[in-house]
Amino acid sequence: MSKGIFSMIVGILRAGRCWPLITVVFYGLVLLVGLHDYLVWDTIKVILGAAALFFAASFNTSERGSTRYFFIALLFLLLYLLVPAKTFLCISCLCGCLFMIETFYGRINFLPVIVLVMMTPLFEYGMNIFSFPIRLALTAWAGDIIGITGQEVGVQGNMITCNGNEFSVDPACMGLQMMVTASLCAMILIGFYQQQYKKVLRVWQVLTILGAMVLMNVASNLLRVIFLVCFNIMPGTAMHDITGIICLVLYVIIPLLFLSWWIVCKYGQPLQTHRKRYVLRSALKLSLFNISLPAGLLIVFIINTPRDIQQQVLSHVPAMQGYAVQSLPGNIIRLKNDSLLVYIKHIPASYYTDHHPMICWKGSGYEFYKVEEKRMGGHTIYTALLQQQKDKLYTAWWYDNGLVSTSSQLQWRWDVLTGAHPYSLVNVTASSERELRLAVDEILHKRSLSVYL
Q: Can you name the residues that pair with 344 across neighbouring β-strands?
């Protein structure tokens, strides 16, 4: 009997030595099972991200890794337990991975954190959605510049008409979508020059380079739109994509080469070298932290799965005369009649994504044209033309909480953050522009959808 107990204790101790492998397995399960529909494994982004992590990551091997990432991961794990938003789960998982890496290699620098943020779907979502006003401004600027040459140019929303040809500035084009690629390239260059010259930059210096990169990218896109229109390079052609790549290289990557080199050489601090090397000796506390965190992530994910907001369906939805009302997963209400299709998409909090129509309708195979801000019913909203082959629809959307209607992402998020009633995204679609205008005017004037907000 005692021999069997002794063998069991020895087996447990031997298994305890494998805790890094157990931890990696747990994190793998969270990433593959819990976040498989959240993470977008884009090949180019993964390759650039891996390269950026390789060049950007450095360790103070003389200093023991702290528990800072453990407590950050724990905080977001608790937030995910309260509010099942996949963003919280993703941040907790990434911070847990950083904590485990610091356990073995020493204190890590801040650049890999920035790279990981850039690789998340939230960063790309923010680039696509919050850059939308920039795309509209770029269209207007490009139209004004081309008009100086004497060509007949018309601008409507994100559409430019020149000599009978139409060009659109939208996320589907190789333009502002390159923001993530340019950001990762900037991090690769910063990391490379830091390794080359044995110097490190402070946070504000890195942010200065990234800010300059954003301005370069905007200027590059302006020039790209002008080239496409002036040389009549139509969407869907190889030259359309090649033009985007050439502009990215000439007006973003090459200037970043010189800017990053200059800032690192002139303002970088010499990298301190240490003879003493951190060696992991007593691993009991760290092993317990490293095993408990991913295990907690997995358990909380299993607990939260039944109440995943993406699967929630509202009950007891009020009826509305003249409409067929249906509740859909994701806290979405659909109202439909012979001429209108209305989606009301509830947004639980200010930090949630918003079921943006430019994402949802594209998933249904429609392309967006003539996207612009308009005044309807006394409020500013977005309108667009949806087209799928010969099928055309006219759509409008705005954010509404029953008291305030706005087209501004920043306004509704700030209102909710400061205690306002949660907003919903209202999307109205009709088969003609006249029907859409009449419907939107009536909805905004009579506040007929307030019962659902």
A: 333, 426
Cβ 243 vs Cβ 228: under 8 Å: yes
**CA distance to 186, 338, 381, 399, 439, per residue, from 444 (Å):** 45, 20, 11, 11, 9
| 268 touches 194 (CB < 8 A) | yes
Look at residue 189 and tell me whether its pLDDT is greater than 90: yes
Cα four-point dihedral sign 359, 364, 367, 372: negative
Question: How distant is the alpha carbon of residue 13 from its chain centre?
Answer: 43
Q: How far is CA 248 from CA 175, 185, 294, 412, 444, in A?
A: 8, 11, 39, 33, 42
Average pLDDT, integer, range 129-149: 79
CA atoms of 94 and 83, how far apart (whole Å):
18
**DSSP 8-state symbol, 34:** I
Paired tokens of 351:
């930090």
> What are the tens digits of pLDDT across the range 23-50?
888 888 888 877 777 777 667 778 888 8
Who's near 176: CB < 8 A, 6+ residues apart? 127, 128, 131, 134, 135, 217, 218, 221
Q: Which two tokens stand for residue 134?
A: 């920039």
Q: What is the pLDDT of residues 106-123, one digit of tens each?
A: 788 888 989 988 888 778
Task: Return the structure tokens found at 39.
Answer: 């993470």
Tell me if the pTM is above 0.90.
Answer: no
What DSSP string runs through 53-102? HHHH--EETTS---SHHHHHHHHHHHHHHHS--HHHHHHHHHHHHHHHHH
CA 26 to each of CA 232, 326, 327, 344, 373: distance values in angstroms, whole numbers, following the listed order: 53, 39, 36, 38, 47
Residue entry with tokens 């501004």: 408
